[in-house]
Protein: MarR family winged helix-turn-helix transcriptional regulator
Amino acid sequence: MTSLPVVNQPPHRCGALVDHLARRLRLRSESVLAPLGLRPRHLIALTVLRDLGGSSQQHLAKTLEMDSTNVVTLLNELETENLIERRRSPADRRRHLVELTDVGAKLLARAEFALTAVEDEVFSGLSAEQRETLYALLQQASSKTAGEACRESGGC
Amino acid sequence: MTSLPVVNQPPHRCGALVDHLARRLRLRSESVLAPLGLRPRHLIALTVLRDLGGSSQQHLAKTLEMDSTNVVTLLNELETENLIERRRSPADRRRHLVELTDVGAKLLARAEFALTAVEDEVFSGLSAEQRETLYALLQQASSKTAGEACRESGGC
DNA sequence: TAGATCGTTGGTGTAAGACAAACCATTGAT
DNA sequence: ATCAATGGTTTGTCTTACACCAACGATCTA
Structure:
């Protein structure tokens, strides 16, 4: 057997790196988000909701991979702040369709703007172009899996 | 003022995306890591130690952005399993130099191998090449900031 | 010698989040 | 019409990861 090309080295694992970066981002985000009355988990939920353009709660739970009872309390918090809206699905009145309100969308935008400095700092090792690439990859990775959660729950 | 090119759209924020992906990875990793006696935080610490090739504890605390007292307990856990080693710095005998042991390096390698399936699943939306790009970007982002922590603490 | 620094121990408090049980409204199948 | 299954909700318990504080010994530096 002739020796193979460069291939056989162990593939790189992103897990720990992602975790590590997430921590750095989260720590800084907390203080920036606090004045807006948000916590990191709120931001994740709002972001996912925006990207999904609305969702049933069960679908949301699957996407966030959170226990559904905890999703309820998370959404309660967001709803009392008028950031999201629960409407009954006309097709199946047991379902709640969750959507961003205008207030929620605007607050999310403000939050993201406020996070500029944080990301500039944490991603200071990357050029603007590299950051854009990173964003695209992350988006692609998470929307793929979101799509699967979607199919599973028959949602969307 | 003539209108500017494509530029002025709000830049994308990776924070929530990173957080979200980190969660997905962490949830799955826990069950894979458990049989090896590891938790996600252990993996992060081991990974950072490998990438740094050893470090003082204070420097490690800065890199991980963890409270130093919590770093102590984390290292205690790793040390009782013989995964890391604390040696006194000859230059400053107050300092502990922390390094991976052979056992630790091997376990880390085994852990990463065991995580293959997890990453394959979570990153199923990306091609092998894209995953490699992602890894490179993450590595670059986190090593840059690690370098800053290093300078701050006069370490390395 | 005095004061700062590194690591360590022990203790407290908070928040995320998993999990379980019981409930209502609604659906869909028989 | 009945009954099981489903989506959401409430409540309550338990664990874990942390941050934070105070005090200490060893060591370095001035």
Observations:
- DSSP finds seven helices and three strands in chain A.
